[in-house]
Design goal:
Strand content: 15-25%
Strand order of the largest sheet: 1-2-3
Order of helices and strands: EHEHE
Number of helices: 2
Helix content: 25-40%
Radius of gyration: 11 Å
Structural class: alpha/beta
Number of strands: 3
Largest sheet: 3 strands, parallel
Length: about 70
């Protein structure tokens, strides 16, 4: 059992750079990952990338930098 197997991780800016690397890393630690980014295409790409290796990912399109 991995140290992250009973945790759910949310990563904003998951489409590129540190956010993308963090999403993938947590997925390899058996943590379900909620990926958040403003770009639908990027979210779908990272979602499929994580789920191809059998991990659990959920994608959310949102801009967390803008308040309602």
């Amino acid at each position: 059992m991995s140290r992250c197997s009973k945790k759910v991780v949310g990563v904003t800016g998951a489409g590129s750079g540190i956010g993308r690397a963090t999403s993938i890393r947590f997925a390899t630690e058996d943590a379900p990952v909620v990926t958040v980014d403003v770009d639908q295409g990027i979210i779908e790409e990272i979602y499929h990338l994580i789920n191809e290796v059998g991990e659990k990912a959920h994608g959310v399109v949102a801009n967390v930098g803008v308040s309602p």
